[in-house]
Here is the input.
Amino acid sequence: MSNPADSTIGRSTPVTTAAHFQRPTAMPIHKYGRYEQVDIADRTWPNQRITKAPRWLSTDLRDGNQALIDPMSPVRKREMFDLLVRMGYKEIEVGFPSSGATDFDFVRSIIEDGAIPDDVTISVLTQAREELIERTVASLKGAHRATVHLYNATAPVWREVVFRGSREQVKQIAVDGTRLVMEYAEKLLDARTTFGYQYSPEIFTDTELDFALDVCEGVMDVWQPEAGREIILNLPATVERSTPSTHADRFEWMSRNLSRREFVCLSVHPHNDRGTAVAAAELALMAGADRIEGCLFGQGERTGNVDLVTLGMNLFSQGVDPQIDFSDIDEIRRTAEYCNQMEVHPRHPYAGDLVYTAFSGSHQDAIKKGFESMETRAEAAGKTVDDIEWAVPYLPIDPKDVGRSYEAVIRVNSQSGKGGIAYVLKNDHKLDLPRRMQIEFSKLIQAKTDAEGGEVTPKDIWGVFQDEYLPNPDNPWGRIQVRAGQTTTDKDGVDTLTVEATVDGTDTVLTGSGNGPISAFFDALHSVGIDVRLLDYTEHTMSEGASAQAASYIECAIEDKVLWGIGIDANTTRASLKAVVSAVNRAGRSAG
Here is the structure.
């Protein structure tokens, strides 16, 4: 009889066969070298915590703008500038005025229009060539507070391939450029302007540390920083090349070795080539940086600059005031999307359409219980929910702190074979709802399932949708019913719209004008006391052919509500007007 101790039955055997391990690829890894580590045996940054906001600089109007397929028009630039001011940014890089008339004229316009608050410093970028420096400084005449930002590349590849110069020659470019900035500031600016200076050894992440330090010291020898005369030394990760920890080591090394450190504002400018720009910026702060340059939502060259929204909200989520107002994050996102003509990803931290949305049933349950627990704890403490520490599973912040709400997105039961709500509407009814409208509608389905229980069928979904968004001729509801309309356009391109309608039970004729039928209709509605503002608009055809119907979707701010409306018609203009009526009538229904 065999010994039971010799048996392997019921024992777990470690799997060690080669089939279960990753295997080498044929990718050409020999082409790439490793980044240089920094020898700091007594590094201190890992033990630090970020307990206050850094100085922020937005470079949306310069670094962000130069990376756009369609650079901002003057109108879009002004919209972005005004947004940044409203949010609370006190340092804003507004352009590269020596690059052409567009940037130069924009800088002049915000100065001459008095658009720059007294506590906001504008910054302008220049290369280290005399004619460019002169043009750059000239753009700042009359500014209250202004900084010239000079840069030159210092990394070995740029020295050897681009400039074909020695270390000393590249350093001299920075030194001579600094001297020229000072000379032209003295010559062209007067006592109205509080003038500052910033220098960047571009490609800092690939520059030898001893050389980066030598160039910065040479620049400071010319500028002579002292009390009341700081210098901003910006150390850019123009191309992100290392781990965030190595980036932090480089900042700690520079912070320790710079002379006159108390008069230096050490600035970090990460790009996101490795996908770790936010971490690199945060660790650089822990390592001694004073200031962060970046763009809203990570706009910028290639993979983008560091995202100022994520950085600021990360502080907020840890109980640190970012000193930037993100309380209406949807308005910030909409403005940035308009100015950049690029969408913010639906999964973008803190701001994306889906980041406060739970699809998983177990997540929905945990979040629901978290909200209930918050209410119980607040009641026991004799406080409001807003006065106790936030603790809800899967939600790192309270969505309403940024003007959002938590959404539990309900799917059609998978056994029905129809997929989700959006699938049913698109597949069965040819309606391709915008994502935010999908989220809005899902709440109505949620209410139905909460009230009635059971499975939500495709027929149920369509019935709820029709009742909520589409007028029923047999049972009209809402403040407005539109019967007929006519649009005319004058020689200046202004549209005038006349609409026969019933408003609050009274037949009337509405008239308005604007830069399109929708704008004219809003103007007409204002004349009868209905305050409507357009937030988003999209449309699509529902089939092919000359007789195809069009579906228009409009997101409107109606007094204190944000609601979607839909219109369906063979004529796209009529469809858009019906969509506005749908949203306005829904606002009246929810008010009642």
